[in-house]
Amino acid sequence: MPDPLNNSYYAATANAWDAQPAFAGEGEYDVAVIGGGFTGLSAALACAEKGLKVALFEKETVGFGASGRNGGQLIPGLRWSMREIDEEFGRERAQAIFDLAYGAVGRVKDRIARHGIRCDLKAGHLEAAYKPAHFDAMQRDAEFLAKEFGWESEIVQPRDMGRHINGGGYHGGIYDPRGGHFHPLNYALGLARAAKDAGVEIFEHSPSWLGDANARYTIMATDNWMQDLDPALGRYTIPIMNYNIATAPLTNWQDYLPSDAAVADSRFVLNYFRLSADKRLIFGGGEKYVQAPPADIAGFVRKHIAEVFPSLANTPIDYAWGGAVGVTMNRLPHMGRKGNVFFAHGFSGHGALVTTLAGELLAEAVTGTMERFDVFAKLPHRPFPGGKLFAQPLATLGLLWYALRDRL
Ligand SMILES: Cc1cc2nc3c(=O)[nH]c(=O)nc-3n(C[C@H](O)[C@H](O)[C@H](O)COP(=O)(O)OP(=O)(O)OC[C@H]3O[C@@H](n4cnc5c(N)ncnc54)[C@H](O)[C@@H]3O)c2cc1C
Predict the structure, then answer these.
(1) What ligand 1 atom has the least distance to the C-alpha of 206?
(2) What is the pLDDT of residues 177-215, one digit of tens each?
(3) 146 C-alpha to center of ligand 1: Å?
(4) How many A from CA of 6 to the centre of ligand 1?
(5) Within 13 Å, how many C-alpha atoms sit on residue 348's CB side?
(6) Backbone angles phi and psi of 219, in degrees to 5
């Protein structure tokens, strides 16, 4: 039966990929990577490039999780601004975090170029202010980022927003030419192809549990499924369901997004959208804090399209899908080590770029180089309170409060 959450534009336009065999229980490896999303694929590829013998286990098919379903928005940095990071951790750590988090853009572009990955990469990301106060804060953050870390982006005054977007009534924004957007599933498949070419053995339809492969090291890259492998680690994230649609191709796309940039607004429960290669509007909006999808995903997202582009309120929707965003308490990625097991998860909606880097840091850590890995591994984290039964409801209450605050 087709997965009701994966009637995606991405699955329908995926590049050719040969199905990989299921694991037959044989083989000896240096590294077992569990999870075939961006994190696991990047880690496996980087480990193989270091000369290690690697097996990657994916319980479904490559890109099945968030990596094959996301909004495709390439947003440089983390969920925290560099101003917040600098205030919290001091300049020395902030500089190290900056180097990695913003350097992640180059890691993805390098993989795409080096392996010839066809994933419709386009330049330009706009963060759009939902309220005037958001624009004030964005400008301060952008100025700080440019002055203190040398990362220049363009402050777009409200009167100039029409260069990028006609709709939404936004109060200005920040345009980052180094950000952009891509076809995430085709990026994942491209990484998988590169990993195979580098010697990684990929097993699909092969759920793996810690220790069932004969490997010296294990990398856990299962994001929202971490609790199945290690319940204690699983408590550091909760899944937040998020839904996307793709319209039929728009002939008049310039009327809506003339610069073809990806756009994300500044609300806590944000709307984010962009144009595909064939000029469909790919739109994500609304979150649900329970696992069950809405009966009508397209209808659920359509209300949000109408808020931004009223004239597209009834435009045909060809695809609708969803997935779970793995979110940590403080919205920073959670990485670390437990003996010979290394893990990274909880990219909190900013995983399209940082996961490729995280995979490379995991590979460095496995081979004993900890400096860059430790920059992330030392970020402070707490598990969601309330244990297995109550973590999600308690977190939901907190999140609903933030969502409500945006409406006030
Ligand atoms: C709807 C949606 C929109 C998003 N939009 C954006 C965006 O626009 N920009 C952005 O930066 N980020 C976005 N994100 C977040 C981003 O997609 C994720 O942070 C990122 O893809 C996480 O990659 P990953 O490899 O860590 O996890 P995943 O891609 O989820 O991969 C984990 C894999 O592990 C496999 N697995 C789990 N358990 C086992 C097991 N026991 N054995 C074997 N395999 C197992 C799963 O099947 C899955 O394929 C979005 C996420 C969602 C859901």
Answers:
(1) 43
(2) 999 999 999 999 999 999 999 999 999 999 998 777 899
(3) 31
(4) 13
(5) 16
(6) -115, 120
